[in-house]
Amino acid sequence: MSAPALVLASTSPRRLELLARIGVVPARVAAPDIDETPLTGESPAAYVARLAEGKARAVERGADEIVLAGDTTVAVGTRILEKPVDEADLRRMLGLLSGRRHRCVSGVCAIDRSGRARVRSVTSVVAFKRLSAAEVDWYVASGEGMGKAGGYAIQGRAEAFVRFLSGSHSAVVGLPLFETRALLEASGYAFA
């Protein structure tokens, strides 16, 4: 039996870059379309695990394909910080993150050729320095935080705000590579 091909259920360029770091190039990329609204009382870990599996199941999988999907969110206490809807929302998020610790929770799901889903979630702790009004203005003006969970990209300018990180840097970026490789291997993906 031939090795299965990989389908990435994400159009995130960051996830493609992260996969390339571990030598994985998907055979194709598909854009999943699911409702990403958190459920009432849903924990951040349950939320990202549900979304990762939902995204993986939302794309068509051929008989000889594995599907991989991921989702990442930022949590302050029990509050899930989704992607900011506008600059005011981004400023609100940066205010919540300023000078305190928060959690970045990343979920990943691999569905093998038989249709079995394997899901993991990874929690990393990140602490931002206390942000001045000028730093918030600078970051908002960069446009980098729009479209990002929690309103920031750790792989970009926001890394200058991080005074502490415990956990997986790649998970904060958007895909926990250690867990991803293990899930792909368990799902039958052949690493060269």
Give a quick summary of the entry.
The chain is built from six helices and seven strands; from the N terminus they run βαβαββαββαβαα.
Write a structural description.
This protein is an alpha/beta fold and 192 residues long. It has a single domain, classed as Maf protein, CATH 3.90.950. It contains six helices and seven strands; from the N terminus they run βαβαββαββαβαα. Strands 1, 2, 3, 4, 5, 6 and 7 form a seven-stranded mixed β-sheet that branches. The radius of gyration is 17 Å and the shape is elongated. The model has no long low-confidence stretch (mean pLDDT 95). Nucleoside triphosphate pyrophosphatase that hydrolyzes dTTP and UTP. May have a dual role in cell division arrest and in preventing the incorporation of modified nucleotides into cellular nucleic acids. It is found in: Cytoplasm. InterPro entries: ITPase-like_fam, Maf-like. It is an enzyme of class 3 (hydrolase). Its cofactor is a divalent metal cation.
